[in-house]
Amino acid sequence: MESLEVNGKTVEEAVDKALEQLDLSREQVEIEVVKKGKGGFLGLGAEEARVRVTPFSPQPVQIQESEVEDESSEFTQVAQEALGNILSLMGLTATVELQTPLQEDNGIATSADPVVLNIKGDDLGVLIGRHGQTLASLQHIVRLIASHRVGTSAPLNVDVGDYTQRRSQSLGGLAHRLAERAASTGQSITLEPMSANERRIIHLALVDHPNVTTRSIGDDELRKVVVIPKAKVSSHS
User: Fold this and answer.
1) Domain segments of the chain: what residues?
2) Nearest of 45, 49, 39 to residue 16 by alpha carbon
3) DSSP label at 72?
4) Which of 63, 76, 113, 156 could staple 101 via S-S, CB 3.0–4.6 A?
5) CATH number of 60-161, picked from 3.40.50.1220, 3.30.300.20, 3.40.720.10, 3.30.450.20
6) 164-237 belongs to which CATH class?
7) Distance between terminal CA atoms of the chain?
8) pLDDT tens per residue across span 44-57
9) Helix residue ranges, H only, 27-119
């Protein structure tokens, strides 16, 4: 993932904003102070701090026969069986397709590429829920079952008819439409509460936008993203 440069009134504020946009912790990034900033006098001559935050690249994982058979493959198999049983108990007719991450020619994959269990069938909206909340819970349950039975864990996502990919594209489009509206009207726009992953999609979609910036507000399940015109931010500096 590329570096992200963010401004803030202080270095700490800039770092916090960058971590929020990336949805990462301090332990997962390298932080470089580009400009310390200064307070100025009575607001005159003040300069914002600027930091460059670079996520650590995932360490390459060599795919070895024994490791696949003993750990990752077993975890995935148990997870697939568990998911199939849950669907049967719910009375749903569906199939679970296993989608493994593509490997490079040298046989090396990265730990950032999870296996996806994609559920295919008709009338599966009940598995998705509002903004994917039910799907996220289902994924969590399947991971817990597999981890408990195998005694280890591995990167795994559960999807329904490629919903996650389509939702990501939809949110990206929404972000840009709201950005143009906020920039043209000069008014901030607050989105409805979203999960951390969906907020991250909005933040990243607008991270390089020339006319707006984003910020998260609220607590827990009520946390939401605000799209703010940069002209408005400057006027309050």
Assistant:
1) 1-57, 60-161, 164-237
2) 49
3) I
4) 113
5) 3.30.300.20
6) alpha beta
7) 30
8) 666 888 888 887 65
9) 65-67, 73-89
